[in-house]
């Protein structure tokens, strides 16, 4: 009973502290997925079937920026210079079989305004993830690899959004 009397004030103080921190409205800039873009419309030069382009469009449409279908209607043009995925052997076991792979996802892009002037010069974003490999778990490792590529794609979209939001209009 005595221990309960000592613990009760601590628990109440902890609850009050947690409530005051959540009530203050503090959050990291961009942590809610919304970014203030320096332009109202953008054209994305991705193929229609590009999963990266689709995710970027979805994230941009969540904010105040319109994604337009024609380049001449946009205030900004996002040009994809190159996009590549790679898989390289990272390490081998004592029998000479693959133990780890290194997965890479690289995007090089630039952003121009409606007049063709560069707002953001050629920029490369390269992401890397390592994955262990076991030939007895082939199907599980293939799905893990696909999951890692999807995770890298989401990370890539967030990095692109941060770079777009940081553009200073001329």
UniProtKB/TrEMBL annotation:
Subcellular localization(s) per the UniProt record: Cell outer membrane
Entry's Gene Ontology cellular component terms: cell outer membrane; transporter complex
Subunit (UniProt): Component of the lipopolysaccharide transport and assembly complex. Interacts with LptD.
GO molecular function: lipopolysaccharide binding
Protein family per UniProt: Belongs to the LptE lipoprotein family.
Entry's Gene Ontology BP terms: Gram-negative-bacterium-type cell outer membrane assembly; lipopolysaccharide transport
Gene name as annotated: lptE
Role of this protein: Together with LptD, is involved in the assembly of lipopolysaccharide (LPS) at the surface of the outer membrane. Required for the proper assembly of LptD. Binds LPS and may serve as the LPS recognition site at the outer membrane.
Pfam families for this protein: LptE
Domain of life the protein comes from: Bacteria
Coiled coil: none
Swiss-Prot/TrEMBL keywords: Cell outer membrane, Lipoprotein, Membrane, Palmitate, Signal
Protein's UniProt name: LPS-assembly lipoprotein LptE
Membrane topology of the entry: Lipid-anchor
């Amino acid at each position: 009973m005595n221990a309960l009397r000592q613990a009760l004030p601590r628990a109440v103080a902890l609850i009050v502290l947690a409530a005051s921190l959540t009530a203050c409205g503090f959050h990291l800039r961009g942590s809610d997925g919304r970014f203030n873009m320096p332009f109202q419309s953008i054209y994305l030069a991705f193929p229609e079937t590009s999963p990266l382009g689709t995710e970027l469009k979805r994230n941009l449409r969540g904010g105040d920026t319109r994604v337009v279908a024609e380049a001449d209607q946009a205030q900004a043009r996002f040009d994809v210079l190159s996009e590549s995925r790679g898989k390289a052997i990272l390490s081998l076991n004592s029998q000479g079989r693959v133990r780890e792979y290194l997965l890479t996802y690289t995007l090089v892009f630039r952003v121009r305004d409606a007049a063709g002037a560069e707002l953001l010069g050629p920029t490369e974003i390269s992401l890397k993830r390592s994955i262990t490999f076991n030939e007895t778990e082939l199907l599980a490792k293939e799905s893990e690899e696909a999951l890692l590529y999807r995770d890298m794609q989401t990370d890539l979209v967030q990095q692109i959004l941060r770079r777009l939001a940081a553009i200073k209009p001329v």
